[in-house]
Specification:
Helix 6 packs parallel to helix 9 and helix 17 runs antiparallel to helix 18. It contains 29 helices and no strands. By secondary structure, the protein is mostly helical.
């Protein structure tokens, strides 16, 4: 398990043994429960014998204590004991559910309540116990508990500098293996939380765990459609191109395969293929083919991806290429942007599906994108206005004019230049004449007028 910070804390907690005699004297424990705990917390042979002879009593006593003790240190200690038990044998997961039901005390509710304590170790250890209880039994959480639990895990991913982020991710790895929890996770914007973490600087182990979560989600065809619309491919291609760990490469390629196989809509499968081509996945596959892998699944996924992407790239149109690049949120100067013929033939296609692609283009001006993307997006808006008679009106209705004006003060000279040219195209008719009166910036000015092959 990758939750190293949690494990370090567990080792510290185990070093401080509990005096169970105190709880016998205060009548929190009966004599029988006291004997159970001293053996369960005793040497290995005593513990094994107690679990073999009285597993039900061990579970009953642990649940009794975790509910009736309030101090942090003993609660932490008992939670660690429960987690140990759940890892040892799958049968204990069902036993905890059975005991909770017999006491009219559902165990999911018990540990979700513990997740509200101020002590971070207890909250995270309890979250892990909930995940193990779900994974190691046939009992599913009710809708209310499921929503509370998954929302809590998502919040842990969003929390900056969270020492327990690996624990939350491991919980998701366990819980999302079960289909019943995946839809709720997606509905709670869990996909965005994963992508946002992956876009930051994280270690390869956390990368693997988070992408594993995406991989299991994409086995559900309906959810694979939703994953496609979250635009995860550019983020995964970035990681793939930099990855030096085979396990990370393997899980990314497996996720890509699902995104080409599982979506129910052919159009979405096509979009995914084009996004992978745009992200230079085919070139990376060529590099990987020169290496030897013992993992048969990895090599099979490589061959599948190569064949599928080659089929899709054969008949790709220039507008499909443009649409795929636009949806990726990353634009570069290329023929599809700078060719007058392209805009003459395709400008009106941006109006389809209630201006879906045009809205994406305008949104690129307001989401803090890099200077190159901003410059190209500004240029494209100008070309749309130039080649579509109602372009000026549509752009203003979508708020594009205000975004363009904001870019006039951008720190990058190319962005300012493109914003000025585009604003002239929006505001006046004789834009060609006025455009010639504006001198392009010296820094990378050539880049704004010259086609660059992708």
């Amino acid at each position: 398990m990758a939750a190293s910070f949690l494990q370090l804390k567990i080792n510290e907690i185990r070093a401080n043994k509990i005096n169970w005699q105190t709880y016998l004297q205060s009548r929190i424990l009966t004599q029988d429960e006291y004997v159970t705990m001293t053996k369960l917390d005793g040497p290995g042979d005593q513990r094994a014998a107690q679990l073999a002879e009285r597993p039900l009593q061990c579970v009953k006593t642990l649940l009794h204590l975790v509910v009736h003790i309030n101090k942090d240190q003993p609660v932490q200690y008992i939670a660690a004991m429960i987690d140990d038990l759940l890892q040892e044998d799958r049968k204990y997961g069902q036993l905890f559910h059975d005991v909770g039901r017999s006491n009219n005390q559902p165990v999911y509710g018990t540990f979700i309540t513990l997740m509200r304590r101020p002590d971070k170790f207890t909250t995270n250890q309890s979250a892990l116990i909930v995940a193990r209880l779900a994974y190691r039994s046939k009992e599913h959480m009710g809708a209310s508990d499921r929503a509370v639990y998954l929302t809590w895990l998502i919040d842990q991913l969003k929390t900056p500098k969270n020492e327990y982020r690996e624990t939350a991710t491991y919980c998701l790895q366990l819980i999302l293996r079960m289909a019943v929890y995946r839809e709720t996770f997606v509905e709670k914007d869990g996909l965005d939380s994963i992508i946002n973490v992956l876009m930051g600087k994280v270690g390869f182990q956390l990368q693997y765990q988070l992408i594993f979560c995406l991989w299991v989600i994409t086995f559900d065809p309906k959810l694979a459609n939703r994953v496609t619309k979250c635009n995860i491919i550019p983020t995964l291609t970035d990681i793939l191109n930099e990855s030096v760990k085979e396990k990370v490469t393997r899980i990314i390629l497996a996720t890509f395969r699902n995104l080409l196989e599982k979506p129910t809509e052919p159009e979405l499968r096509r979009e995914n293929a084009l996004a992978m081509v745009l992200g230079k996945v085919m070139k990376h596959l060529e590099v990987l083919e020169g290496k030897k892998f013992e993992d048969a699944d990895l090599t099979d996924d490589m061959h599948f991806l190569k064949e599928t992407l080659e089929v899709n790239v054969r008949d790709v149109s220039s507008f499909e290429e443009y649409a795929s690049e636009l949806k990726s949120g990353r634009l570069e100067w290329s023929v599809v942007h700078t060719s007058a013929n392209f805009w003459l033939e395709n400008a009106t296609l941006l109006n389809e599906k209630n201006y879906e692609l045009l809205k994406v283009l305008v949104s690129l001006l307001g989401n803090g994108h890099d200077a190159l993307t901003l410059a190209v997006a500004l240029h494209d808006i100008g070309e749309y206005v130039r080649h579509y008679p109602r372009g000026k009106t549509v752009i203003e209705q979508l708020g594009g004019k205000q975004h363009v004006m904001t870019c006039l003060t951008h720190q990058d000279p190319n962005v300012r230049y493109q914003a000025l040219i585009t604003l002239q195209k929006i505001m006046v008719h004789n834009w060609e004449y006025l455009g010639k009166q504006i001198e392009a910036p010296n820094v990378n000015a050539k880049e704004t007028t010259t086609s660059v092959k992708m």
